[in-house]
Amino acid sequence: VVLNFHLEKIIALQKNTSNIRNLCILAHVDHGKTTLADCLVASNGIISSRMAGKLRYLDSREDEQIRGITMKSSAISLHYATGGQEYLINLIDSPGHVDFSSEVSTAVRLCDGAIVVLDAVEGVCPQTQAVLRQAWLENIRPVLVINKIDRLIVELKLTAQEAYIHLQKILEQVNAVTGSLFTSKVLEERAEKDTEAAGTGDGGDQVYDWSAGLEETDDSHLYFSPDQGNVVFASAIDGWGFSVRQFAHMYSQKMGVRSEVLLKTLWGDFYLNTKAKKIMKGAQAKGKKPLFVQLVLDNIWSLYEAVVTRRDKEKVEKVISSLGIRVAARDSRHSDPKVLLSAICGQWLPVSQAVLTMVCEKLPSPLDMPADRVEKLMCAGARRFDCLPQETQDLKRAFLDCKSDPATPAIIFVSKMFAVDSKALPRNKQRPLTQEEMEQRRDVARQRHAEKLAAAQGVGGPERASSEAAPPGGQTYDEEKEHFIAFARVYSGVVRKGQKVFVLSPKYDPLAPGCAPTDDLPAVPHLACRPLGSLYLLMGRDLEELDEVPSGNVLGMGGMEEVILKSATISTNPACPAFTPLNFEATPIVRVAIEPKHPSEMSKLVRGMKLLNQADPCAEVLIQETGEHVLVTAGEVHLQRCLDDLRERFAKIEISASKPIIPFRETVIRPPKVDMVNEDLGKQQKVAIVRQVKDEQPRLPETVQVDPRGLVTLTTANKLAAVGVQAVPLPEEVTRLLEGSSELIRTMELFNMSAKEGRTLALSGKTLEGIRDLKQKLETHMQGHKWRNAVDRIWAFGPRRNGPNILLNSLDGGGGGTTGYRDFDNSIVSGFQLATLAGPMCEEPLMGVCFSVESWDMKFPRQDSMEGGGAPVEGGAQGKAEEDTPESGDAAASRGQARRRTDVALSDCYGPFSGQLIAAMKEACRYAFQSKPQRLMAAMYTCEIMATAEVLGRVYAVLSKREGRVLQEEMKEGSEVFIIKAVLPVAESFGFADEIRKRTSGLASPQLVFSHWEVIPSDPFWVPTTEEEYLHFGEKADSANQALKYMNGVRRRKGLYVEEKIVEHAEKQRTLGKNK
């Protein structure tokens, strides 16, 4: 009955957009998000207030309950009345574990506000910073709940005064994070304005005053401050919470002071002068108790002392009578004092009331969406808002108006797809029977019973009795099938069941030709037309079916799994652009190969992996060239959850997963000055190395020549072309810059491709500024003789045209070049792409390597003597094969024809000439790479561990055992906790969290986030020669060559040749004869 009433109320409230609040709960892991959500859910009578915090209602998965952490974001709709208004609150609970930060992104996109929960003891943690950054990027307004204040009393045993100072520090820490985000935004905008001014200005000298932008911009509304009403102090497990405003109202009546005055003075350096009966400033300087301590904290501390610490019955009764509340006898007699405490606090300061009042007053409704957020959502990638078609720009008005009338175009964003069981769908649920239905069933049962008796006596026919044996109204549904529901929000218009809509996938472009609504749909890429399936109200574990949903609401949509993979934009107007992709904080890096236990079940596994890929926003499913099915996840916990889902829900078969596939990168370094045992490499050894290179040359194929500088010249199989390539290590700053700018490089590549196809791609000012900035930084970092004009000579980036490796054009002449060379420049670039995608050490991608093409000689037949087979004409390499002038269509066609003729003429028993050139370039790059000192690069995690002093030594022991390196260790102010920051190779991280927890008895738990790539200093090809080296690195020595171990592991996994002894001391093998 409660739920039915609740449902009707919510459907009525959905129509009043100004009173809707869409919000998510964000926090670090174990800071109390789900417990707080339980308290808010209990306020609506959906669960018992006694069970709040124990039930964890929004953690509906079994593994979430077992592990005690949230793994997916789930939504519930609540109603709340305050100030004579009724509000609808769409609450989304999100995970705090770093492995599931992608779920936070999906939740944040659908919301207008966020509750940031903070542990009063631990303060600002790494994931707190991450969620604040995500909220900032999506431009949503946060409010703060400082939770677990009971720990300050019970665990840390702080006095009220100490707790006040501690809470002040925590607020400063949070505001420092917000302040840094705000400062960077203001400085960015200021820089953009200055660049525009410089572009349009008179070119005179300008003096940049960076501080001016910060002074002019008002940032007071951004920060958390109790007197602004955007902070609540709470203990969700004990069921109490308050804002300063509540106490200001309470005391204004008692003290006869206006509540506005109390609101401003309750938090801050103010004290009560009892003689003058005035509130005065300067509590700290005069050694007085601040008002907040005197009027607020002291009361809570004395309540805890009476109920929990001393269990003083008389004092408790006084407190109860003074507060004017009633406590049940069974609560006051209960053996656990926390039950009595919850009963008192739940009536005096209910946490749900404090939090929901703050949410309704401080967070915006869907009508208050900022215009810049709308533009940001509509401009995917590098596009400018004013470059979108006029029809698309007009939709901005629809976003801002957020109307629900049928004339307004419907715009919906689906942030993720989630799987539900058939049993959970409303149509398959058992509903309570009405009185008439119960009577009808009773009559049928009586009739059947009479027929059975008659049949037993041989009066009736047995056929008739058996035909009615099936129970009436029995529901049959396919229990095996997983149903996908789209987690979405309506931004404009009204959505109805069965309504025809356009589904726009993330790559959809309203600028693409032929995207007008009247055109034939099958011709338009990334656009599908589909009627909407069932619409659901998301109620935590339950779904309730709806007929229509007005704008501004969060909803679930069924029947969209065939057209939506992970996220999509849905609209009734095809001029609507696809929304900006979600910002994912975690990078999926942990890979495992998966195969079924029984090969015959391969098809089930493939289907299961497709479903998993759709159901998880962060997981990736790949099929490698080797035919392996690979699952890529964000971390160990995420991997375990994905494997469990595959076994139990999606594939429903026994599967075996390989050991995690660890990614590596290959690179070259400058010749080292010291050897493996840190002894200087003298000139003699350098000479020996050069001799060694010369000695090795006969073993190279006859088409390859290597000179002492490392320049490799390789001739194609048909002897018609020769390419000279040299490998040089890139400066570390350049590698980092290229890795961070991969999106920008991809945009440049898209622009070039569009230009070649004759289309123009309008780039936003920010992107153009980014490209100029990238070029400037590259010029700054690439200094010295060998990098002269290097930025202007960049031919391509690789692998996949946007990686951290560079192909340089160091050919003589630099400019023009003949058409023949221009025809084959693509082959050179393709060879470079292949070489950088799989290096020679263990077929892993290269990183931080610059390949410089020093020479390129080709001999091609004359064009006029093609048919007659004339003598070849020699040509030296003149320049980079790149067109500076656009050519007409006829010229392009004739050039393509000439190229085909050339290729046919140069095609021989070795295949087309362009293919030979690709192979030659690839091999030349590989040999050039091998002629330099090679190293492996390992992926590194940054690891943040919070631990107390007594387990610090054990944490260090585990880190050093796993090749970890501690960067920083600091003690958190006001607590006994140390924060250790370290880096740890991904290869050594599996089982790390479990081992830390075991060794420290659960007192320390690490947060691992992928950080960067680091060169492993040891040379994998080094062989010990001297006695001292044998002592350090001999075959039986303790310290093995780490890089060689990793390299051989990867080679063995990929089925490549591994140089190792399989049998040692074969003559000493024990035989059967000796055993007798």
Describe the structure in your own words.
The chain is α+β, with helices and mostly antiparallel strands and 1076 residues long. Among the domains are: 1-188 and 224-239 and 350-367, 3-Layer(aba) Sandwich (Rossmann fold), CATH 3.40.50; 257-348, Yeast translation eEF2 (G' domain), CATH 3.90.1430.10; 371-425 and 480-511 and 523-571, Beta Barrel (Elongation Factor Tu (Ef-tu), domain 3); 590-661, Alpha-Beta Plaits (2-Layer Sandwich); 683-814 and 823-860 and 911-931, Ribosomal Protein S5, domain 2 (2-Layer Sandwich), CATH 3.30.230. Helix content is 38%, strand content 20%. An eight-stranded antiparallel beta sheet has the order 14-13-19-10-11-18-15-16. The termini are far apart. Residues 18-367 form the Tr-type G domain. InterPro entries: EFG_II, EFG_III/V, EFG_V-like, EFL1, P-loop_NTPase, Ribosomal_Su5_D2-typ_SF, Ribsml_uS5_D2-typ_fold_subgr, Small_GTP-bd.
Brief synopsis:
Helices cover 38% and strands 20% of the residues.
Overall pLDDT score: 82
Structural class: alpha+beta
The CATH architecture name of the domain at 1-188 and 224-239 and 350-367 reads 3-Layer(aba) Sandwich
Major β-sheet profile = 8 strands, antiparallel
* Quaternary structure of the protein: single chain
Shape: globular
Which runs of at least 5 residues are low in confidence (pLDDT < 50)? Answer: 201-208, 459-479, 513-520, 686-698, 862-895
Spatial arrangement of strands, main beta sheet? 14-13-19-10-11-18-15-16
Strand content: 15-25%
CATH homology superfamily of the domain at 1-188 and 224-239 and 350-367: P-loop containing nucleotide triphosphate hydrolases
Report Rg. 35 Å
CATH secondary-structure class of the domain at 1-188 and 224-239 and 350-367: Alpha Beta
CATH topology of the domain at 1-188 and 224-239 and 350-367: Rossmann fold
Helix count from the secondary structure assignment:
34
Distance between the termini: 83 Å
Number of strands: 35
Helix content: 25-40%
Biased composition (Gly residues): 867-878
Domain Tr-type G: 18-367
GO biological process, one term: cytosolic ribosome assembly
Protein name: Elongation factor-like 1
